[in-house]
Protein backbone atom coordinates (compact mmCIF):
# COMPACT_ATOMS: atom_id res chain seq x y z
CA UNK A 1 0.00 0.00 0.00
CA UNK A 2 1.28 3.47 -0.86
CA UNK A 3 0.31 6.76 0.73
CA UNK A 4 0.05 9.77 -1.55
CA UNK A 5 -0.95 13.30 -0.72
CA UNK A 6 -1.45 16.80 -2.03
CA UNK A 7 -2.49 20.03 -0.26
CA UNK A 8 -6.19 20.79 -0.51
CA UNK A 9 -7.02 24.41 0.19
CA UNK A 10 -5.77 25.23 3.68
CA UNK A 11 -5.85 21.61 4.81
CA UNK A 12 -3.88 18.67 3.56
CA UNK A 13 -5.55 15.47 2.42
CA UNK A 14 -4.01 12.06 2.05
CA UNK A 15 -5.34 9.32 -0.11
CA UNK A 16 -4.58 5.66 0.46
CA UNK A 17 -3.91 4.04 -2.87
CA UNK A 18 -4.19 0.29 -2.90
CA UNK A 19 -3.25 -2.04 -5.73
CA UNK A 20 -6.33 -3.76 -7.09
CA UNK A 21 -7.03 -5.58 -10.34
CA UNK A 22 -9.34 -4.01 -12.92
CA UNK A 23 -11.42 -6.36 -15.06
CA UNK A 24 -11.96 -5.90 -18.79
CA UNK A 25 -15.57 -4.96 -18.19
CA UNK A 26 -14.40 -2.06 -16.05
CA UNK A 27 -11.99 -0.67 -18.62
CA UNK A 28 -14.47 1.80 -20.10
CA UNK A 29 -15.26 3.11 -16.63
CA UNK A 30 -11.55 3.42 -15.98
CA UNK A 31 -11.04 5.49 -19.15
CA UNK A 32 -13.71 7.91 -17.94
CA UNK A 33 -12.07 8.05 -14.50
CA UNK A 34 -8.65 8.58 -16.05
CA UNK A 35 -9.95 11.52 -18.07
CA UNK A 36 -11.45 13.08 -14.94
CA UNK A 37 -8.28 12.42 -12.95
CA UNK A 38 -6.16 14.22 -15.54
CA UNK A 39 -8.40 17.26 -15.21
CA UNK A 40 -8.47 17.09 -11.41
CA UNK A 41 -4.71 16.78 -11.18
CA UNK A 42 -4.38 20.21 -12.78
CA UNK A 43 -6.80 21.80 -10.34
CA UNK A 44 -5.23 23.52 -7.33
CA UNK A 45 -5.03 21.27 -4.32
CA UNK A 46 -6.39 18.06 -5.87
CA UNK A 47 -4.31 15.05 -6.80
CA UNK A 48 -5.07 11.45 -7.66
CA UNK A 49 -2.53 9.06 -9.16
CA UNK A 50 -3.31 6.49 -11.84
CA UNK A 51 -0.56 3.90 -11.43
CA UNK A 52 -0.72 1.54 -14.42
CA UNK A 53 -4.48 1.27 -14.30
CA UNK A 54 -4.48 0.10 -10.69
CA UNK A 55 -5.81 2.48 -8.07
CA UNK A 56 -8.57 3.15 -5.58
CA UNK A 57 -9.36 6.12 -3.37
CA UNK A 58 -9.55 5.52 0.37
CA UNK A 59 -10.57 7.75 3.32
CA UNK A 60 -8.47 10.71 4.36
CA UNK A 61 -5.49 10.37 6.72
CA UNK A 62 -4.50 13.10 9.15
CA UNK A 63 -1.67 15.42 8.12
CA UNK A 64 0.33 14.56 11.26
CA UNK A 65 0.42 10.92 10.18
CA UNK A 66 1.71 11.98 6.78
CA UNK A 67 4.39 14.17 8.33
CA UNK A 68 5.58 11.41 10.64
CA UNK A 69 5.83 9.03 7.70
CA UNK A 70 8.54 10.97 5.86
CA UNK A 71 10.63 13.75 7.39
CA UNK A 72 10.65 12.47 10.94
CA UNK A 73 13.55 10.65 12.60
CA UNK A 74 13.48 6.85 12.86
CA UNK A 75 11.05 5.48 15.44
CA UNK A 76 13.83 3.67 17.34
CA UNK A 77 15.09 6.98 18.84
CA UNK A 78 11.98 7.20 21.05
CA UNK A 79 13.01 7.39 24.71
CA UNK A 80 16.66 8.21 24.02
CA UNK A 81 18.20 10.16 26.93
CA UNK A 82 21.82 10.30 25.76
CA UNK A 83 22.19 11.80 22.30
CA UNK A 84 23.35 9.30 19.66
CA UNK A 85 23.52 11.18 16.38
CA UNK A 86 24.18 8.04 14.35
CA UNK A 87 20.74 6.65 15.30
CA UNK A 88 19.04 9.32 13.19
CA UNK A 89 20.05 7.92 9.80
CA UNK A 90 17.12 7.32 7.49
CA UNK A 91 16.57 6.92 3.75
CA UNK A 92 13.55 8.51 2.06
CA UNK A 93 12.44 8.56 -1.56
CA UNK A 94 11.90 12.03 -3.00
CA UNK A 95 11.07 13.40 -6.46
CA UNK A 96 13.84 14.98 -8.55
CA UNK A 97 13.90 16.86 -11.84
CA UNK A 98 16.70 16.21 -14.33
CA UNK A 99 18.00 19.38 -16.06
CA UNK A 100 21.04 20.54 -18.01
CA UNK A 101 23.66 21.98 -15.64
CA UNK A 102 24.02 25.27 -17.58
CA UNK A 103 20.40 26.29 -16.86
CA UNK A 104 20.26 25.32 -13.19
CA UNK A 105 20.79 28.82 -11.75
CA UNK A 106 18.17 30.40 -13.98
CA UNK A 107 15.67 27.63 -13.34
CA UNK A 108 16.07 27.58 -9.54
CA UNK A 109 14.79 31.14 -9.26
CA UNK A 110 11.47 29.94 -10.65
CA UNK A 111 11.28 26.71 -8.66
CA UNK A 112 11.64 28.12 -5.13
CA UNK A 113 8.20 26.84 -4.20
CA UNK A 114 8.77 23.35 -5.51
CA UNK A 115 12.37 22.81 -4.41
CA UNK A 116 13.14 20.77 -1.31
CA UNK A 117 14.02 22.81 1.78
CA UNK A 118 15.69 20.80 4.50
CA UNK A 119 18.55 21.68 6.89
CA UNK A 120 21.93 20.74 5.43
CA UNK A 121 20.50 19.36 2.16
CA UNK A 122 21.79 20.63 -1.17
CA UNK A 123 18.88 21.24 -3.49
CA UNK A 124 20.95 20.56 -6.59
CA UNK A 125 23.22 17.53 -6.95
CA UNK A 126 25.15 15.87 -9.76
CA UNK A 127 23.37 13.30 -11.89
CA UNK A 128 25.19 10.01 -11.25
CA UNK A 129 24.15 8.81 -14.74
CA UNK A 130 25.12 11.90 -16.77
CA UNK A 131 27.71 14.48 -15.75
CA UNK A 132 26.17 17.04 -18.13
CA UNK A 133 22.99 17.05 -16.06
CA UNK A 134 21.98 17.99 -12.57
CA UNK A 135 19.19 16.73 -10.33
CA UNK A 136 16.97 19.30 -8.60
CA UNK A 137 15.53 17.89 -5.40
CA UNK A 138 11.82 18.63 -5.08
CA UNK A 139 9.49 18.83 -2.12
CA UNK A 140 7.53 15.55 -2.03
CA UNK A 141 4.68 17.35 -0.29
CA UNK A 142 4.25 19.60 -3.32
CA UNK A 143 5.50 17.66 -6.33
CA UNK A 144 4.49 14.10 -7.22
CA UNK A 145 4.29 14.15 -11.01
CA UNK A 146 4.94 16.70 -13.72
CA UNK A 147 1.31 17.79 -13.40
CA UNK A 148 2.01 18.99 -9.84
CA UNK A 149 3.94 22.02 -11.08
CA UNK A 150 2.08 25.32 -11.12
CA UNK A 151 1.29 26.99 -14.42
CA UNK A 152 4.12 29.54 -14.11
CA UNK A 153 6.58 26.78 -13.29
CA UNK A 154 5.48 24.71 -16.28
CA UNK A 155 5.87 27.78 -18.45
CA UNK A 156 9.51 28.34 -17.49
CA UNK A 157 10.23 24.64 -17.91
CA UNK A 158 8.86 24.84 -21.43
CA UNK A 159 10.88 27.98 -22.19
CA UNK A 160 14.07 26.27 -21.11
CA UNK A 161 13.16 23.07 -22.90
CA UNK A 162 13.06 21.00 -19.72
CA UNK A 163 11.07 17.79 -19.65
CA UNK A 164 8.81 17.99 -16.53
CA UNK A 165 9.00 14.24 -16.06
CA UNK A 166 9.73 13.40 -12.42
CA UNK A 167 12.27 10.80 -11.32
CA UNK A 168 12.80 9.24 -7.91
CA UNK A 169 15.88 9.60 -5.75
CA UNK A 170 16.82 7.85 -2.51
CA UNK A 171 17.98 10.54 -0.11
CA UNK A 172 19.82 9.62 3.07
CA UNK A 173 18.90 11.83 6.01
CA UNK A 174 21.17 12.22 9.01
CA UNK A 175 20.95 14.03 12.36
CA UNK A 176 22.11 17.22 10.65
CA UNK A 177 19.07 17.19 8.34
CA UNK A 178 16.41 17.21 11.07
CA UNK A 179 15.09 20.30 12.84
CA UNK A 180 15.30 20.54 16.61
CA UNK A 181 11.53 20.22 17.08
CA UNK A 182 11.49 17.11 14.86
CA UNK A 183 14.24 15.49 16.89
CA UNK A 184 12.63 16.25 20.25
CA UNK A 185 9.18 15.18 19.07
CA UNK A 186 10.68 11.84 18.00
CA UNK A 187 12.63 11.34 21.25
CA UNK A 188 10.16 12.44 23.93
CA UNK A 189 7.19 10.21 24.82
CA UNK A 190 4.31 10.54 22.39
CA UNK A 191 1.82 13.23 23.29
CA UNK A 192 4.25 15.14 25.52
CA UNK A 193 4.98 18.84 25.02
CA UNK A 194 8.15 19.49 23.04
CA UNK A 195 10.57 22.25 24.03
CA UNK A 196 12.18 23.83 20.99
CA UNK A 197 12.11 27.47 22.15
CA UNK A 198 14.38 29.25 24.58
CA UNK A 199 15.58 32.67 25.63
CA UNK A 200 18.88 33.57 24.03
CA UNK A 201 21.32 35.49 26.21
CA UNK A 202 24.48 35.93 24.17
CA UNK A 203 25.98 32.47 23.71
CA UNK A 204 23.59 30.95 26.28
CA UNK A 205 20.29 29.18 25.58
CA UNK A 206 18.11 29.60 28.67
CA UNK A 207 15.41 26.93 28.91
CA UNK A 208 12.62 26.43 31.41
CA UNK A 209 11.93 22.70 31.23
CA UNK A 210 8.83 21.01 32.60
CA UNK A 211 8.96 18.00 34.88
CA UNK A 212 8.25 15.44 32.16
CA UNK A 213 11.16 16.79 30.11
CA UNK A 214 13.77 16.51 32.87
CA UNK A 215 14.83 12.90 32.09
CA UNK A 216 15.82 14.19 28.64
CA UNK A 217 17.37 17.47 29.82
CA UNK A 218 20.96 16.81 28.73
CA UNK A 219 19.85 15.61 25.30
CA UNK A 220 17.58 18.66 24.90
CA UNK A 221 20.44 20.98 25.86
CA UNK A 222 22.79 19.41 23.32
CA UNK A 223 20.18 19.60 20.55
CA UNK A 224 19.69 23.31 21.27
CA UNK A 225 23.45 23.84 20.91
CA UNK A 226 23.69 21.75 17.75
CA UNK A 227 20.79 23.40 15.98
CA UNK A 228 21.39 27.07 16.87
CA UNK A 229 24.60 28.66 15.55
CA UNK A 230 26.39 30.75 18.16
CA UNK A 231 24.87 28.88 21.12
CA UNK A 232 27.62 27.14 23.09
CA UNK A 233 25.88 26.62 26.42
CA UNK A 234 22.38 25.46 27.41
CA UNK A 235 21.05 26.06 30.91
CA UNK A 236 17.85 25.26 32.76
CA UNK A 237 16.28 27.30 35.55
CA UNK A 238 15.91 25.08 38.61
CA UNK A 239 14.13 27.46 41.00
CA UNK A 240 12.03 30.62 40.95
CA UNK A 241 13.59 34.06 40.76
CA UNK A 242 15.03 35.14 44.11
CA UNK A 243 13.04 38.26 45.04
CA UNK A 244 15.99 39.81 46.85
CA UNK A 245 18.55 39.84 44.06
CA UNK A 246 16.28 38.85 41.14
CA UNK A 247 18.45 35.95 40.04
CA UNK A 248 17.89 32.21 40.09
CA UNK A 249 19.83 29.00 40.30
CA UNK A 250 20.52 27.31 37.01
CA UNK A 251 21.93 24.01 35.81
CA UNK A 252 24.22 23.73 32.80
CA UNK A 253 22.61 21.04 30.65
CA UNK A 254 25.24 20.90 27.95
CA UNK A 255 28.17 22.86 26.60
CA UNK A 256 30.51 25.25 28.34
CA UNK A 257 29.92 26.50 31.86
CA UNK A 258 31.00 30.06 31.11
CA UNK A 259 28.14 32.39 32.10
CA UNK A 260 30.00 35.61 31.27
CA UNK A 261 28.16 36.91 28.25
CA UNK A 262 27.56 39.91 26.02
CA UNK A 263 24.20 40.88 24.52
CA UNK A 264 23.05 43.55 22.11
CA UNK A 265 19.63 45.13 22.66
CA UNK A 266 18.15 48.15 20.89
CA UNK A 267 21.61 49.25 19.68
CA UNK A 268 23.17 49.06 23.17
CA UNK A 269 25.68 46.53 24.48
CA UNK A 270 25.47 44.86 27.88
CA UNK A 271 28.00 42.56 29.54
CA UNK A 272 27.34 40.55 32.71
CA UNK A 273 27.52 37.20 34.46
CA UNK A 274 24.15 35.64 33.64
CA UNK A 275 24.33 33.35 36.68
CA UNK A 276 24.41 36.31 39.08
CA UNK A 277 22.11 38.98 37.62
CA UNK A 278 18.64 39.30 36.08
CA UNK A 279 18.27 39.61 32.32
CA UNK A 280 15.23 38.87 30.19
CA UNK A 281 15.50 39.34 26.40
CA UNK A 282 11.70 39.24 26.15
CA UNK A 283 11.57 42.72 27.71
CA UNK A 284 13.40 44.41 24.84
CA UNK A 285 10.22 45.99 23.46
CA UNK A 286 9.22 47.25 26.91
CA UNK A 287 12.63 48.83 27.47
CA UNK A 288 12.22 50.64 24.17
CA UNK A 289 8.64 51.72 24.95
CA UNK A 290 9.57 53.41 28.21
CA UNK A 291 12.65 55.03 26.66
CA UNK A 292 10.48 56.61 23.97
CA UNK A 293 8.25 58.24 26.62
CA UNK A 294 11.11 60.40 27.89
CA UNK A 295 12.39 63.52 26.18
CA UNK A 296 15.85 65.12 26.36
CA UNK A 297 16.25 66.86 29.72
CA UNK A 298 13.82 64.58 31.56
CA UNK A 299 14.78 62.85 34.81
CA UNK A 300 14.56 59.10 35.38
CA UNK A 301 14.71 57.28 38.71
CA UNK A 302 15.23 53.56 38.02
CA UNK A 303 14.51 51.84 41.35
CA UNK A 304 15.38 48.26 40.30
CA UNK A 305 17.80 48.98 37.47
CA UNK A 306 19.48 45.60 36.96
CA UNK A 307 22.39 45.94 34.53
CA UNK A 308 20.91 49.04 32.89
CA UNK A 309 18.39 48.23 30.09
CA UNK A 310 16.21 51.22 31.05
CA UNK A 311 18.88 53.54 32.45
CA UNK A 312 21.40 53.41 29.60
CA UNK A 313 19.06 54.09 26.62
CA UNK A 314 17.39 56.91 28.56
CA UNK A 315 20.76 58.45 29.45
CA UNK A 316 21.67 58.36 25.75
CA UNK A 317 18.73 60.72 25.16
CA UNK A 318 20.48 63.36 27.28
CA UNK A 319 18.31 62.67 30.29
CA UNK A 320 19.51 62.69 33.91
CA UNK A 321 19.36 59.18 35.35
CA UNK A 322 19.51 57.87 38.91
CA UNK A 323 19.83 54.06 38.74
CA UNK A 324 19.75 51.69 41.70
CA UNK A 325 19.96 47.96 42.35
CA UNK A 326 20.32 46.05 45.60
CA UNK A 327 22.22 43.15 44.00
CA UNK A 328 25.97 43.90 44.27
CA UNK A 329 26.62 42.03 41.02
CA UNK A 330 23.96 44.04 39.18
CA UNK A 331 25.44 47.23 40.64
CA UNK A 332 28.91 46.21 39.42
CA UNK A 333 27.74 45.43 35.88
CA UNK A 334 25.52 48.53 35.79
CA UNK A 335 28.62 50.67 36.39
CA UNK A 336 30.51 48.66 33.78
CA UNK A 337 27.77 48.97 31.15
CA UNK A 338 27.40 52.71 31.70
CA UNK A 339 31.07 53.07 30.83
CA UNK A 340 30.79 50.59 27.97
CA UNK A 341 27.98 52.64 26.41
CA UNK A 342 29.65 55.98 27.29
CA UNK A 343 26.91 57.32 29.57
CA UNK A 344 28.74 57.04 32.89
CA UNK A 345 28.74 60.84 33.25
CA UNK A 346 24.94 60.95 32.91
CA UNK A 347 23.99 58.13 35.28
CA UNK A 348 24.32 58.22 39.06
CA UNK A 349 24.48 54.63 40.31
CA UNK A 350 23.39 53.35 43.74
CA UNK A 351 23.53 50.00 45.55
CA UNK A 352 20.58 50.31 47.96
CA UNK A 353 17.36 48.61 48.91
CA UNK A 354 14.51 50.06 46.82
CA UNK A 355 12.85 51.63 49.87
CA UNK A 356 16.11 53.26 50.99
CA UNK A 357 16.72 54.55 47.46
CA UNK A 358 13.26 56.16 47.34
CA UNK A 359 13.49 57.67 50.81
CA UNK A 360 17.08 58.83 50.31
CA UNK A 361 18.45 59.92 46.89
CA UNK A 362 15.01 60.09 45.21
CA UNK A 363 13.44 62.16 47.98
CA UNK A 364 16.41 64.54 48.04
CA UNK A 365 16.35 65.05 44.29
CA UNK A 366 12.57 65.48 44.16
CA UNK A 367 12.72 68.17 46.84
CA UNK A 368 15.06 70.08 44.53
CA UNK A 369 13.23 69.28 41.31
CA UNK A 370 9.80 70.16 42.71
CA UNK A 371 10.92 73.04 44.95
CA UNK A 372 10.24 76.80 44.63
CA UNK A 373 12.04 77.02 41.29
CA UNK A 374 10.03 74.16 39.80
CA UNK A 375 7.67 76.57 37.99
CA UNK A 376 10.51 77.33 35.62
CA UNK A 377 11.11 73.61 35.01
CA UNK A 378 9.79 72.17 31.76
CA UNK A 379 11.07 68.61 31.92
CA UNK A 380 9.24 65.57 33.32
CA UNK A 381 10.21 63.24 36.14
CA UNK A 382 9.70 59.47 35.67
CA UNK A 383 10.08 56.67 38.22
CA UNK A 384 10.45 53.12 36.86
CA UNK A 385 9.82 50.23 39.24
CA UNK A 386 10.50 46.97 37.40
CA UNK A 387 10.26 44.34 40.12
CA UNK A 388 6.92 42.78 39.15
CA UNK A 389 6.80 40.31 42.04
CA UNK A 390 6.97 43.05 44.70
CA UNK A 391 7.09 46.56 43.18
CA UNK A 392 3.49 47.45 44.10
CA UNK A 393 4.37 47.02 47.76
CA UNK A 394 6.98 49.80 47.42
CA UNK A 395 4.30 52.33 46.37
CA UNK A 396 3.59 52.87 50.07
CA UNK A 397 6.90 54.78 50.29
CA UNK A 398 5.43 57.64 48.24
CA UNK A 399 2.85 58.47 50.92
CA UNK A 400 3.91 61.76 52.55
CA UNK A 401 7.40 61.40 51.08
CA UNK A 402 7.92 65.17 50.57
CA UNK A 403 7.63 68.22 52.82
CA UNK A 404 6.57 71.77 52.02
CA UNK A 405 4.06 73.22 49.58
CA UNK A 406 3.11 71.04 46.63
CA UNK A 407 4.22 71.80 43.10
CA UNK A 408 1.98 72.23 40.07
CA UNK A 409 0.14 69.06 39.11
CA UNK A 410 1.79 68.76 35.70
CA UNK A 411 5.22 68.63 37.38
CA UNK A 412 4.41 65.71 39.67
CA UNK A 413 6.41 62.49 39.06
CA UNK A 414 5.08 59.83 36.69
CA UNK A 415 5.37 56.27 38.00
CA UNK A 416 5.72 53.17 35.82
CA UNK A 417 5.18 50.23 38.18
CA UNK A 418 5.32 46.58 37.02
CA UNK A 419 3.32 43.70 38.43
CA UNK A 420 2.19 40.15 37.75
CA UNK A 421 -1.45 39.17 37.77
CA UNK A 422 -3.34 35.87 37.59
CA UNK A 423 -6.71 37.59 37.76
CA UNK A 424 -9.23 37.09 34.91
CA UNK A 425 -9.17 40.89 34.53
CA UNK A 426 -5.45 41.62 35.10
CA UNK A 427 -5.58 45.38 34.34
CA UNK A 428 -8.36 45.99 36.84
CA UNK A 429 -6.59 43.78 39.36
CA UNK A 430 -3.35 45.77 39.14
CA UNK A 431 -5.20 49.10 39.41
CA UNK A 432 -7.07 47.94 42.50
CA UNK A 433 -3.97 46.55 44.24
CA UNK A 434 -1.86 49.65 43.50
CA UNK A 435 -4.72 51.93 44.58
CA UNK A 436 -5.16 50.00 47.81
CA UNK A 437 -1.50 50.55 48.73
CA UNK A 438 -1.75 54.28 48.01
CA UNK A 439 -5.19 54.64 49.59
CA UNK A 440 -6.84 56.07 46.46
CA UNK A 441 -8.65 54.88 43.36
CA UNK A 442 -6.46 54.77 40.24
CA UNK A 443 -9.17 53.78 37.78
CA UNK A 444 -9.67 57.31 36.43
CA UNK A 445 -6.07 58.46 36.57
CA UNK A 446 -3.90 55.60 35.35
CA UNK A 447 -3.27 53.41 32.33
CA UNK A 448 -2.25 49.74 32.29
CA UNK A 449 -0.01 48.39 29.56
CA UNK A 450 0.18 44.59 29.00
CA UNK A 451 3.87 43.64 28.79
CA UNK A 452 3.89 39.89 28.17
CA UNK A 453 2.31 36.59 29.03
CA UNK A 454 4.60 34.97 31.60
CA UNK A 455 2.80 31.63 31.93
CA UNK A 456 -0.71 30.24 31.43
CA UNK A 457 -3.06 32.60 33.29
CA UNK A 458 -0.21 34.84 34.43
CA UNK A 459 0.37 38.27 32.90
CA UNK A 460 3.03 40.91 33.39
CA UNK A 461 1.70 44.48 33.25
CA UNK A 462 2.85 48.05 33.76
CA UNK A 463 0.59 50.57 35.49
CA UNK A 464 1.43 54.22 34.81
CA UNK A 465 0.10 57.18 36.78
CA UNK A 466 1.09 60.60 38.06
CA UNK A 467 1.40 60.62 41.87
CA UNK A 468 -1.26 62.95 43.31
CA UNK A 469 0.14 65.79 45.44
CA UNK A 470 -2.09 64.73 48.34
CA UNK A 471 -0.28 61.39 48.38
CA UNK A 472 3.25 62.68 47.79
CA UNK A 473 3.20 65.66 50.20
CA UNK A 474 2.58 65.72 53.93
CA UNK A 475 -0.48 67.53 55.26
CA UNK A 476 -2.32 67.49 51.93
CA UNK A 477 -5.96 66.62 51.31
CA UNK A 478 -7.01 64.66 48.24
CA UNK A 479 -10.07 65.87 46.36
CA UNK A 480 -11.66 64.27 43.33
CA UNK A 481 -10.71 67.12 41.02
CA UNK A 482 -7.06 66.89 42.00
CA UNK A 483 -7.10 63.13 41.65
CA UNK A 484 -8.41 63.41 38.13
CA UNK A 485 -5.83 66.06 37.30
CA UNK A 486 -3.27 63.60 38.59
CA UNK A 487 -3.70 61.70 35.35
CA UNK A 488 -0.31 61.72 33.65
CA UNK A 489 -1.86 61.90 30.19
TrEMBL record:
Key words of the record: Acetylation, Cytoplasm, Methyltransferase, Mitochondrion, Nucleus, S-adenosyl-L-methionine, Transferase, tRNA processing
Record has Cell cycle as a keyword: no
Any one GO biological process: mitochondrial tRNA methylation
Descriptive protein name: tRNA (guanine(37)-N1)-methyltransferase
Lineage start: Eukaryota, Metazoa, Chordata, Craniata, Vertebrata
Family statement: Belongs to the class I-like SAM-binding methyltransferase superfamily. TRM5/TYW2 family.
Domain SAM-dependent methyltransferase TRM5/TYW2-type positions: 198-469
Keyword Methyltransferase: yes
Record text on subunit structure and interactions: Monomer.
Protein task: Specifically methylates the N1 position of guanosine-37 in various cytoplasmic and mitochondrial tRNAs. Methylation is not dependent on the nature of the nucleoside 5' of the target nucleoside. This is the first step in the biosynthesis of wybutosine (yW), a modified base adjacent to the anticodon of tRNAs and required for accurate decoding.
PROSITE patterns per the UniProt record, alphabetical: SAM_MT_TRM5_TYW2
Compartments it resides in: Mitochondrion matrix; Nucleus; Cytoplasm
GO MF, any single term: tRNA (guanine(37)-N1)-methyltransferase activity
Catalytic reaction equation(s): guanosine(37) in tRNA + S-adenosyl-L-methionine = N(1)-methylguanosine(37) in tRNA + S-adenosyl-L-homocysteine + H(+)
Matches recorded under PANTHER family: TRNA (GUANINE(37)-N1)-METHYLTRANSFERASE, TRNA METHYLTRANSFERASE
Gene3D superfamilies linked to this entry: Met-10+ protein-like domains, Vaccinia Virus protein VP39
Organism: Canis lupus familiaris
EC top class named in words: transferase
Cellular component terms per the entry's GO annotation: mitochondrial matrix; nucleus
Residues binding S-adenosyl-L-methionine: 287, 325-326, 353-354, 386
SUPFAM superfamilies the UniProt entry points to: S-adenosyl-L-methionine-dependent methyltransferases
EC number: 2.1.1.228
Amino acid sequence: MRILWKPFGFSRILFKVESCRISESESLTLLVWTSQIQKLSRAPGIFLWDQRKRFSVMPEIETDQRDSALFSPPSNVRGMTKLDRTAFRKTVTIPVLKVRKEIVNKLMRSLKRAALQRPGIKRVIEDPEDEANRLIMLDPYKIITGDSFERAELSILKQLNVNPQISKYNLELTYENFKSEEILKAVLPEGQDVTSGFSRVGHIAHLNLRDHQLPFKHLIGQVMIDKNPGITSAVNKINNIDNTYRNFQMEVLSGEENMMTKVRENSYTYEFDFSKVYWNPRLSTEHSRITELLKPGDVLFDVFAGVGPFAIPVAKKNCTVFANDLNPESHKWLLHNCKLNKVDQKVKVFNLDGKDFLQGPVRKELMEQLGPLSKERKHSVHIVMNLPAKAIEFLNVFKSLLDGPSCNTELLPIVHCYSFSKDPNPAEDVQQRAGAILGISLEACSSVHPVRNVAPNKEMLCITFRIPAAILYKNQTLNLGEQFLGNYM
